[in-house]
Specification:
The chain is of the alpha/beta class and about 375 residues long. Helices cover about 40% and strands about 20% of the residues. The protein is built from ten helices and ten strands. Strand 9, helix 9 and strand 10 form a beta-alpha-beta unit. The chain is globular, with a radius of gyration of 21 Å.
Length: about 375
């Protein structure tokens, strides 16, 4: 077993048996990334991600192809995660033998939400490994894990904190009262912000995945060149379907006058779309801080990698005296490190799953 002092692990004497650090192997397979991570007492030692490029030619993720790729990738990715963890261990100490699959204390996996075929690959692998090793199984909600990605690296927020979680399928404002007590106080009533980015990118003839390309082009454009609809939704909820419709009709009318309008104005169009989406997000986040009185504010999810959103959070933090926290890029998109950190806290709470548990495409927290 690994000695905690050599690794500066975060939770002293957290292993129920008291014989060393808690080793979690985590698996993420909710969409089109196959990822595995090893953490010891909340310290991430590896985070391996295998991306799937096959979907680019189809302009979006094809569920059947994603499932097949997960089956091909999952064993090599888990193997690579253990090897990389051992490389990290050897950098810190040479007093201990290499970590093996038998040293794992629990297996955490993404149980929901996501593409059902993709989830099933990770879930069945985790359940099989749990049964073979006679180790506890930990089921993790994907969106909860995105929030807790903010607890991986220093500096970390203290509880309670607010988290704006923005991904391709979800947009939520969450109050984190503790690692395992999260309260959704606002969410999208239709489309997610990440979907708005990707669908708009498709309208602009940008290849998949289009969200990062909008971000790249936006840095060269004028964010106030074109004005698009901003839905007026009560409370802390979001809506992005109206924005997409606004962009669609705007481009239709503009191309009637000039068929090359998009190509001539691509940077300004990207900047204006991104500015509008971020304005909607930050307006609601500011309202949430006012209603809750919480000034520790985080972002999470795939869209939190967007440079415009990251800069906006910093600017709002300086203007309104917020303490802001942004995960490193590798923990923004889908990854197993966030599953591992969530699994660690669930392990401490002895929140284990039975082998009869099933993957679920949609699930409430």
């Amino acid at each position: 077993m690994i000695d905690k002092k050599d690794f500066e692990l975060q939770q002293a004497n957290s292993s129920p048996s008291g014989d060393g650090g808690v080793v979690i192997l985590a698996i993420e397979s909710s969409c089109d990334e196959t990822s595995a991570s090893v953490c010891i007492d909340g310290k991430i030692l590896s985070n391996v991600i295998a991306n799937q490029t096959i979907h680019e030619q189809y302009g979006g993720v094809v569920p059947e192809l994603a499932s097949r790729a997960h089956m091909q990738n999952i064993v090599p990715v888990v193997d690579a995660a253990i090897k990389k963890a051992n490389e990290k261990i050897q950098q810190l100490t040479t007093h201990y033998p290499p970590l093996t699959i038998h040293d794992i204390d629990a297996i955490a996996f993404t149980q929901a939400p996501g593409l059902i075929g993709s989830l099933l690959v990770g879930a069945q692998f985790a359940k099989s490994l749990s049964l073979a090793l006679d180790k506890p199984l930990i089921a993790v909600h994907h969106m909860q894990a995105h929030v807790l990605a903010n607890l991986i690296s220093d500096p970390k927020p203290t509880f309670p904190f607010l988290c704006l979680t923005v991904s391709g399928g979800h947009t939520q404002i969450v109050v984190a009262h503790s690692p395992l007590q999260l309260e959704i106080i606002g969410e999208t009533i239709d489309d997610a912000a990440g979907e708005a980015f990707d669908k708009t990118a498709k309208m602009l003839n940008l290849p998949y995945p289009g969200g990062p390309l909008i971000d790249r082009n936006a840095q060269k454009g004028d964010p106030k060149k074109f004005k698009f609809a901003e839905p007026q939704i009560q409370g802390l909820n979001f809506s992005f379907s109206g924005l997409k419709t606004s962009v669609l009709y705007f481009l239709r009318d503009a191309k009637l006058k000039d068929e090359n309008f998009i190509e001539k104005n691509i940077d300004d169009l990207c900047a204006s779309v991104q500015y509008t989406i971020i304005k909607i997000l930050m307006k609601k986040l500011k309202k949430a801080t006012e209603q809750t009185g919480i000034n520790q504010v985080c972002i999470a999810g795939g869209v939190s990698a967007n440079s415009g959103l990251r800069n906006a959070l910093k600017e709002f933090g300086e203007k309104y005296n917020w303490q802001t926290f942004i995960p490193p890029f590798e923990y923004c998109t889908d990854n197993a490190a966030m599953i591992a950190i969530t699994g660690f806290y669930k392990y401490l709470a002895k929140d284990f799953a039975d082998l009869s548990i099933s993957a679920t495409a949609r699930a409430e927290w």
